[in-house]
């Protein structure tokens, strides 16, 4: 009798889980399909269908934090973050579209580049993890994490194109990214060209 009741309870729990999860799964599938259509309609030209981005001029979005992507899309749409190309791409996106795109790319597998200069990358690894106490450059890991995985507020940097990282740090050092946090401006303006290239090389090879 006890075994029958136990089996019945298990069946009831499974049934409730099915009733609860089925709508969520259906919604997730619908959001994924919607995001894929948006990507196929334009995003893939620069970022690739899976966020792999074949050009160093455009960021990889695969495995990027979903909330971070959605926030950046909203910033492009509002004009807080400047980009003529991106503002044209996001002008018709709804908040739900942006969230769906963030989830879509966040689930794509991360990739890394083969190191072109291991010695340079070794310098970058030190600067990323330790900073430079002699010049006051703070450790990148303090904000972006020891694995460069980022967060909802900060981007994932692991596996990103080296040139893309260099260009963005350059923008921060010149204070061209006025909408972003002051910490990056303060860090970037102290970095030498060697440190910038070294950190970028290190991060590009990190998965």
Could you explain how this protein is built, in words?
Helix content is 61%, strand content 0%. The protein has 207 residues and is an all-alpha fold. It folds into two domains: 2-106, Cytochrome Bc1 Complex, Chain D, domain 2, CATH 1.10.760; 118-204, Orthogonal Bundle (Cytochrome Bc1 Complex, Chain D, domain 2). Helix 5 packs across helix 9, helix 7 (162-173) packs across helix 8 (182-188) and helix 7 (162-173) packs antiparallel against helix 9. It starts with a helix and ends with a helix. The mean pLDDT is 89.
Low-confidence stretches: none
**Rough outline:** globular
Extended strand count: 0
The SSE order reads: HHHHHHHHH
CATH superfamily of the largest domain: Cytochrome c-like domain
CATH level-1 class of the largest domain: Mainly Alpha
CATH architecture label name of the largest domain: Orthogonal Bundle
For the terminal residues, how far apart are their CA atoms?
A: 54 Å
Structure classification: mainly alpha
CATH topology of the largest domain: Cytochrome Bc1 Complex, Chain D, domain 2
C-alpha Rg (nearest Å): 21 Å
Mean pLDDT comes to 89
Q: Note the beta-strand portion.
A: under 5%
With helices defined by DSSP (H or I, 4 residues minimum), what is the helix count?
A: 9
Tally of separate domains? 2
- The helical percent reads 55-70%
Largest sheet: none
Structure keywords:
0% strand; 2 domains; globular; 207 residues; mainly alpha; Cytochrome Bc1 Complex, Chain D, domain 2
């Amino acid at each position: 009798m006890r075994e029958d009741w136990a089996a019945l309870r298990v069946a009831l729990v499974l049934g409730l889980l099915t009733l609860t999860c089925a709508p969520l799964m259906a919604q997730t599938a619908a959001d994924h399909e919607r995001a894929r259509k948006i990507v196929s309609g334009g995003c893939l030209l620069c970022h690739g269908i899976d966020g792999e981005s074949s050009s160093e001029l455009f960021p990889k979005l695969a495995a990027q934090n979903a909330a971070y992507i959605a926030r950046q899309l909203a910033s492009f749409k509002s004009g807080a973050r400047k980009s003529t190309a991106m503002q044209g791409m996001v002008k018709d996106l709804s908040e739900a579209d942006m969230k769906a795109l963030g989830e879509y790319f966040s689930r794509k597998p991360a990739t890394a580049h083969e190191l072109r200069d291991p010695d340079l990358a070794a310098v970058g690894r030190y600067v990323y993890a330790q900073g430079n106490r002699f010049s006051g450059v703070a450790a990148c890991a303090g904000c972006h994490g020891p694995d460069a995985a980022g967060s909802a507020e900060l981007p994932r940097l692991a596996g990103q194109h080296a040139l893309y990282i260099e260009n963005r740090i350059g923008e921060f050092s010149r204070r061209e990214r006025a909408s972003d946090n002051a910490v990056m401006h303060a860090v970037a303006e102290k970095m030498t060209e060697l440190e910038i290239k070294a950190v970028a090389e290190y991060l590009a090879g990190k998965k």
